[in-house]
Amino acid sequence: GGGGGGGGACDENSAGATNMPARGAKARGATARGGKEGGGKEGGKASRKRPAAEAADEGGGAAGGGKKKTKKGGGAAAEEEAVAQVAFSLSSDTNLWQTAFSAATELAKLEGKVSICSDELPGERVSHLVVTQEPRRTLKVLHAISRGIKIVTAEWVLRSFEARRWLPTEPYIALQPSPVPGRQLDGARFFLGPSLAKFSEKQLRDLVHVAGGVPTAQARAQYVVGTNRKLEGQERVTEEAIISQILGETDELERVPPSQPPPGAAAAETQEEGDGESDSEEF
Questions:
Q1: What is the pTM of this model?
Q2: Nearest to 150, CA basis, from 67, 31, 43, 73
Q3: Which one of 6, 36, 42, 57 counts the least CB within 10 Å of its CB?
Q4: What is the 8-class DSSP label of residue 73?
């Protein structure tokens, strides 16, 4: 599937990185139809799509996220997308994932240096994350936003396959990139308590780290999450506040009122680390 996998990051040394053809749906004949991406309504959309004119190469902090010039026709210079590694967050639409993954794999074979990240969290080498038209707030998307990776719709892959080259991403940007990739949490120090509702402790620690925050012991923390216990001068925040800050939905971390218990305090079950589904779940 396009969303499962362990908790590791996919990079050039990962077992999830491949440029071999994918099993499943044949890429040839893949068109822009691709069905209605995302398969129905999905609550908690990560962000609004940005206008194409504003999407040009902002926040391209990921490796290979820029563009290269290549000459075509009568010597005219045309812009061509520079692609290093492509990852996917399409678990809500298995058919679309199979088609887009197969198309990207075939195109990667033509490009030679491009690799495809099948099912791990996007790492430093990933340049593009492919999502549905209305992206969900998955762990993959949060990591991509934190790393400055371009987040594009599956249409980009399908159209690129038809053109036999990676097309510019402007018309296919799915989420507005962060103006401060890797610095959304700006060095803030977090103590991660035991009562987390949305993430496992490892998932939140890794996410805070890639977004520029510092997971630390409680004595050194500015903020505590997942616990009622805080020391003098510390503020309580929720996992949702951290997500909103990473996505640029808020200007600063929203504090929890003193009387409000942490969201995960009354949970009957806690999420285990590395459960195989966490990076595709919506937060």
A1: 0.71
A2: 67
A3: 36
A4: T
Residue 42 has which token pair? 């999905």
pLDDT 10s per residue in the chain (283 long)? Answer: 444 334 566 764 443 444 433 333 444 344 434 433 333 333 344 544 444 334 334 434 444 445 554 444 433 334 567 899 999 999 889 999 999 999 999 999 988 889 998 767 999 999 999 999 999 999 999 999 999 999 999 999 999 999 999 999 999 999 999 999 999 999 999 999 999 999 999 999 999 999 999 999 999 999 999 999 999 999 999 999 999 999 999 988 999 887 666 565 544 344 444 443 455 566 6
